[in-house]
Amino acid sequence: PCTKDLITITDKDFKTVSAVSIVAIFFIIFFVLKSISLPVILVAAIEFAIFVNMGIPYYTGTTIPFISSVVIGTIQLAILMTTRYKRERAAGNSKKEAISIALGTSIPSIIVSALGFFAATFGVGMIASVDMIASLCTLMARGAIISMFVVIFVLPSLFVLLDKVIIHTSLGFKPKKNSQN
């Protein structure tokens, strides 16, 4: 009964913490990038990566600790590419050119960050004798790789697809008059 109560109470707390975190991230991105649409797009991409990461244990039949969903929400690589995309659009590049340049310049940093975090957490996950620590580290390691793929493949697709919305709801994204959209 004590464990059941702990899970019930913490489940409510984790949902509240998750909602507050999403709102906080939304406002940070809103104020930093001066955009209404980008916080929604970036939070959606991050939540998609978390959703995929949390879904894998279900399909592999792996049991995970009930506190796992809070820990894996800490990986965010999307801002790096978004700021470069913004800079390239403001410089007058078309959306496809801006994405190409943003990817070309951001991918090395994204890969190094993701693989560094993966290596640090995967090693601990493999050798930890405490099941909860091993499980959390494995989730974080997998989350780093999933986030890397989402930022490299999904996020640029969202930028291309939603470019007009981004430009009209963000400051500093409007390309110069003589550029292509």
Please provide a written account of the structure.
By secondary structure, the chain is mainly alpha-helical. 31% of the residues are buried.
Layout of helices and strands:
Blueprint: H1 2-33, H2 37-60, H3 68-71, H4 78-90, H5 95-127, H6 131-161, H7 163-169
Helix pairs in contact: 1-2, 2-6, 4-5, 5-6
Task: Give a short summary of the structure.
The chain has helices spanning 2-33, 37-60, 68-71, 78-90, 95-127, 131-161, 163-169. It has 181 residues and is mostly helical.
Percent helix:
over 70%
Mean residue pLDDT: 84
The main pleated sheet reads as: none
Count of separate DSSP helical elements: 7
Low-pLDDT ranges = none
Strand content: under 5%
Structural Rg = 19 Å
- Cα(first) to Cα(last) distance is 60 Å
Any descriptors?
181 residues; mainly alpha; 80% helix; 0% strand
